[in-house]
Amino acid sequence: MIDLFQETIVSLRDAAKLCPSRRRGKKPHISCLYRWTKSGCRGVRLESLQVGGTRCTSKQALRRFFEALTRQVAACSVNEPVLLVPEDEVSRRLAADGFGEELGSAVPPDETQARREVDTNSSSRRDSLHEG
User: Fold this and answer.
1) For the chain, how big is the Rg over CA atoms in Å?
2) Which of 31, 41, 79, 88 is the most exposed place for a label (fewest CB within 10 A)?
3) Is the torsion defined by CA of 23, 27, 30, 35 positive or negative?
4) How far is it, in rounded angstroms, from Cα 127 to Cα 116?
């Protein structure tokens, strides 16, 4: 929570100027900071307050926001996959696509057969073009 009397209050426009450069050396746009205050980033929200018609944050709130993001990223193991779909849903989809319990084949059996048929058809078309 931002302490209005203990922290250095800045508008989101000024806060964007305090942020480190991101892609192509550009600072984040004010809309990015606004999104961080409303929706958050990776589950972490930037603390803010409304001062009249201006959305504001504090330098200290920015520091807390970046530290919380860093802790969250550090808590995730690099080797551990992040599933955006529940694991049981992944298993169901794999089974529906023809993969069994083992994932030895990178291509489902039906697709392998379909590829063979396409290869055969394209080579027979090639032969008929050269005959005429």
Assistant:
1) 27
2) 79
3) positive
4) 17
Note the pLDDT tens digit of each residue in 108-121: 555 555 555 555 55
Alpha helices in the chain (DSSP H): 12-18, 30-38, 59-75, 87-96, 109-131
Element containing residue 3 per DSSP (H, E): none
Residue owning tokens 């603390």:
47
Question: Cα separations (Å) of 81 from 76, 78, 85, 93?
Answer: 9, 8, 11, 17
- Answer for the pair 93, 41: CB distance below 8 angstroms, yes or no: no
Q: Which two tokens stand for residue 130?
A: 């050269």
Whose tokens are 């192509």? That residue is: 24
Owner of token pair 């999104």: 35
Report angle CA 59, 63, 66 to the nearest 5 degrees: 135
What predicted TM-score, i.e. pTM, was given to this entire model? 0.56
